[in-house]
């Protein structure tokens, strides 16, 4: 099995695409310390431009960006460079999106908050060895809360429409939305 250094020796280029500037900065520094040649982008448009300019060997792309869907960047990367290894990060995990991400070329799909070690394990895992499960996965309550928040945002923060789509009472939804996010 190749070590991290062996894999990075051939082409250490890494593109990070995320619209959360603080998270992007932390991940950029962590990945650079681990030997990657890191470029960053804060939007789908910037990510697509970076892929068009010089397709990286590795990419870590946030699913939901302010100007669109991060899967567009993964798809463009896979078309330009089929051997590239991309990981999709998201705070809104669901199975349908994970399946779509893998179909268009992502090798893994991680829920935020993912640390640099989780990302590297996913990026460098081969078919024979699966990456270790995350040390601190989201709790079931947190996953439920994230899903509710996602639907709420997709419904333009309309409580009645969100409650209808989630098949729950509007007041129940209001109580959930008023609470802090579970850990």
TrEMBL record:
Q: Where is the Response regulatory domain?
A: 13-127
What keywords were assigned to this record? DNA-binding, Phosphoprotein, Transcription, Transcription regulation
State the Pfam families in the record.
Response_reg
Record-linked PANTHER family: RESPONSE REGULATORY DOMAIN-CONTAINING PROTEIN, STRESS RESPONSE REGULATOR PROTEIN 1
Give the protein's recorded name: DNA-binding response regulator
A single GO molecular-function term is: DNA binding
Coiled-coil parts of chain: none
């Amino acid at each position: 099995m190749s070590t991290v250094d062996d894999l990075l020796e051939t082409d250490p280029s890494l593109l990070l695409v995320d619209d959360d500037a603080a998270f992007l900065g932390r991940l950029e520094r962590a990945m650079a310390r681990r030997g990657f040649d890191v470029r960053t982008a804060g939007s789908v448009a910037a990510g697509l431009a970076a892929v068009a300019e010089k397709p990286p060997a590795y990419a870590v792309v946030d699913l939901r960006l302010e100007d669109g869907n991060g899967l567009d960047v993964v798809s463009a990367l896979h078309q330009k460079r089929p051997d590239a290894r991309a990981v999709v990060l998201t705070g809104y995990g669901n199975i349908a999106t994970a399946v779509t991400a893998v179909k268009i070329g992502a090798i893994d799909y991680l829920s935020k908050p993912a640390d640099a070690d989780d990302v590297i394990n996913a990026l460098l895992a081969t078919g024979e060895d699966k990456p270790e499960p995350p040390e601190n996965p989201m709790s079931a309550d947190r996953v439920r809360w994230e899903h509710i928040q996602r639907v709420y945002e997709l419904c333009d923060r309309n409580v009645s429409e969100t409650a209808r789509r989630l098949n729950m009472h509007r007041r129940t939804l209001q109580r959930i939305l008023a609470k802090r996010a579970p850990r």
